[in-house]
Amino acid sequence: MGYGVYLPKYRIKVGEIAKVWGMDGERVSKSLIINEKTVPSLDEDTATISVEAARNALEHAGIDAKDIGAIYVGSESHPYVVKPTATIVAAAIDAVEDLTAADYEFACKAGTAAIQSCMGLVDSGMIEYGLAIGADTSQGRPGDALEYTASAGGAAYIIGKKDTLADILDTYSYTTDTPDFWRREGMDFPSHGARFTGRPAYFKHVISAAEGIMERNDKKPEDFDYVVFHQPNGKFPLNAAKTLGFSKEQLETGMLIPNIGNTYSGATPLGLAAILDKANKGDLILAVSYGSGAGSDAFIIEVNGRNEEKRNMKKVRDYVDRKEYIDYSLYVKYKGKLKGVVLQK
Amino acid sequence: MRGIAAHWRLIPQRYNLVGTKCSNCGEKFFPPRVICPNCRRAGDIEEFRFSGEGRVYSYTVIHVPPDGFEFQKPYILGIIELAEGPRILSQIVDCKPEDVEIGSRVEKVFRKVIADGSEGIIRYGYKFKLKDPKEKPRRL
Lengths: 345, 140
Fold this sequence. Notes:
Chain A is of the alpha/beta class.
């Protein structure tokens, strides 16, 4: 129906972070395939990013917010532990009061889980439109490898049956109990299993979900015009594409990580939005998210003619290009990592 | 924990710039008025939603902020003339003081305004950003 994105304006270069920890910035950049990442401003969080993305999606869809029957916000950095982000979004887009809403958490795949929930409610006829959002202001422990990638941003999708821009032909999920990345209650920063996050975690789930959905639909990699995978760094999606038999050309449109970092729950939805910004009638897209813990949601999406007629004017590229660099000390302040400084006073 | 109910009542204003309009004389009000000062008894007040577009009528830069804003300094506080008429006070964000000029076009954004400490509620609301940071405005 419509989609919208939002990225904060501030950026920090990987080299700037590497300098602090005595690492070679160029080597880190090259090995993770990331140049810079987004940094939220002091007054931005998952709720504000979700609202901006949702407002853009509504503008694009051109529907009345009152017709939205469900709002799900997927994130691992909800501003409150108890009190939904989804109700803040509902009030800010004026979708209240006749709707259901909830927050989702599944590491980096909560956004695509929200899309699936909306699909179910729309398909069953329980609601007319659903709003699914994936957004995060993710945290990386100072000095940890995650600090080079953990960024902020989000995307919102309005799911409905009438006047669609693209149609979700099928969705398939692959889920296991794999402790590769976690954050316990009350902890500021997540922990992860370093190399364990690779083969038994990211690759196993992403590849199984992609293969599962292609097999079920009798499709081969060459049948798709675009593919987007979850992007925790630049290397993982490249390797997943190679293993599955996708080309660099199919992958590159949705590869946003080199310039914005890992937006966690926002990553696959944002990559998909970058593809929709360009895609034409008949284009077939494979989207596969990944959430640690662990699971993958795969989608086969066919773009229809309305996407060309009703192009989204607030493109991912515009947000990627709107930027201002900050240094590490400002970054530390914006992210609230300074001891003794209580930002929420 | 003070003022939760007051904040809750103001959510439509703070999130969506919901004000009022007098359908008799056409004047729009923000914050909302319940009686039209022009038409008085003849006035007819109804809800009106502002577009969030406007211009910088005037601005100042805060270097000595009140509690809760100290880490944002220096920040810009502007009087925004909304496209529909009323002037409101708001922070102007995502730019430096030298980027703002009187007459600059601005649009509303949704931001965190202040939190009641680390345990209290977070108050969200409108702020404004420059519509086109490179624009050289025509003086009002």
